[in-house]
Amino acid sequence: SSKMNPMLGKMWGGVSDKGTLVIKLANRDGNHDLIELKESDDQSKLDARFVSEEPSILIPIEGIYGVYNLPCSGPHVVLITESEHVYSSPTTQSNPNPLLVLRRVKKMEIYPLRHIESTNRLSTPEQPAEELRQLKLLRKSFKEHDLYFTVPSGDGGVVKDVTHTLQRSFQHFVRGASESKWWETDPDSEGEAVDGRFFWNEKPARSMIPSESGNCGIDSPFTLLLETIVPVTSAFVGIQSNIPIPASSNKSNINEEYDQLLISRRSKFRTGTRFTRRGADVTGAVANYAETEQICFITNVADSDRRGCELVEVYSHVQTRGSIPLHWSSPAEVKTYRPHVFIGVDPDVQARGLKEHLSGELKLYATRDSEDGNSRRRYRRGDATKIAMVNLIDKHGDQGRLGLAFDAVLSKVLDGHDPLLANDSVKHIWFDFHAECSGGRWDKLVELLKQVIPALDRQGYFCVVPHFDADAPAWSISSYQDGVVRSNCMDCLDRTNVVQSMFGRYALYRQLHERPGLKNSLKRFRRRTLPVEMVVGYKQQPLTLPWTEGEAAHRYLWADNADAISRLYAGTPALKGDFTRTGKRTKRGAIDDGMNSLQRYYLNNFIDADRQEGMELLVGNCDFDSFPSESGGDEARLSVLKRLSRDDIRGYHQSHARIKVEPGDKVKLLRNRMKSETIKSCFPTSSAADEEGVDAESSSDFLLQVSASAAGEEILDNGQVLELINPWWLPDDYSGVEPDGSSSELAEDMVGRKESILPFVVSAAVAVLYGLRWTL
To answer: Which pTM does this prediction carry?
Structure first.
């Protein structure tokens, strides 16, 4: 209905007799404007102008997603033609407008703006096969992503768009942030208008901004069209409604319920698939980054038919996940299920990326002192951690080397003089998930929870309550969340989701037990806490909520969240999903994990290159390329895939490898170590970075700047194969033997590892047989 979706009945689209796209908009005067959107005559930009002729056939449109520019067939506009209502938060009697309204994009239409006489408007005779292929990848990527947006409800709405958490939305509301439009802010911003990390259609939307500022007047056709663009994000949204809150016997007359929401916003920066996007870039953006917000709407139900349902309190807790913020990669290899890990060894590159990442996290999730007040003092218990980095990777092998590198770089960054990165503001907690929980010992997760609880208590959670007095402000903020727990494993999927659900359970328990939102509610409601038996039950079993309905809802939400994020990054549902859903490992769950692992292997090696390209096109990180058959063909397409899946992901792109040379040595690439990378320039560590082609005049360390090229190419006269010395974060005498006596893969790293795929094939076959047996 138009009540749930204000855009419904206000916008239509159709094709004129000339073949151009015409948008019909309801204006402020109650009439309608007709705007023709097409490519300009010189084909250099878009042209929008008012027209008087209305198309004979119009279809309803709910918004414009953006415009993609194709080099041969011109600009293509993407229209949101249908969306579905997902959730509206409960309301109060004094404020009938819901705080949060979520909608999911259901149907989209891609329309070419160039004048087309052909009846087939999605393809022109001149359109090359390469553009058609990329358009197909774009459509497929649209289908793979669940895209959400928020419609502000009523005047003075707090939640303006889906890219912000509740806390950030209220911070902007309290500060009286200006009503700036998204097109009036800098691209990729993290400001108050829209959070650029989660504004997935930002680049396609900015393609509609005219180059001349004079075309953006308040009543210009461009401005009217820009106002129809809503920020859209790729996310998971899960909802469990009407969950009863347990009450003591002496409070049985109080009937309270809560809705639990889980919103995981995926960052558009470094978006991609499992083995083509790893680690961080120089800006601090990391792969598979997601901000997960757990929201709890508590209502006071007066009648059994829920007609007297009224919002009482709102709670929110935010966690983040993301790839280890170092410059590293593990490109997919057909010969092994677990590809080798490559770690960049330039300390400056590593430290700069990690510092940028930590600074961004602190600016976004550490509450400023001006907003602190007294609301968070109750959470200060001797732990000053604002960013708790929970690292779940193994402590041996490739993962162990990566963990050592991360710990060393983090120590160096925190020892610096940046006042924002105080030594006690960031805490690294390394918990070897596989080693600690091996043999089904899932109870060991309690030890991790005990390590993180001080940070969770210190950071607190966000709480806001509505005012029931008409003369008072509509909302009152009781507490802020000051900091965030950031979790990661290698893929930030399976292990990460298990521990994040545990942290979310603890936050939900605290919110319903402490209920700070009721302490200053004008004595309308009595102070309430969970019954004593529930408190004792949780303290005895902190991996389970003591009320059945709440535990079941919590498990289903987080299990669905795990599957949604995993499908986009790895191509399959999450592993260990049976534990997240049921609290224990099952035989069927183990079989499903085996089948999903087999599917991941196939997708990562044979499909992900195209999926990666589709995602890059979707967010606008790469442009459409056309390669006519007479000037490249398959060879040109291969270069595109190499650019997407190799240029940026190898551990040495824009990085360095340190080696030792003797006087007179000529340097040649160690083929097995750097795969298809080759030396681009060679210079002593003491020389300027732009000095190239220097011979070794004395025994010293050299830095080799590498880039994608033919394997084994000789840069200097008489090539000599040299081994890499230990990375700078390991001692020079490191022998590749772990403290427990086990052999590390570092020694194999020097000569290249040739791991057989046979064990994986055998295990997959066994999983299939067990699956058939289980089914029969």
So the answer is: 0.80
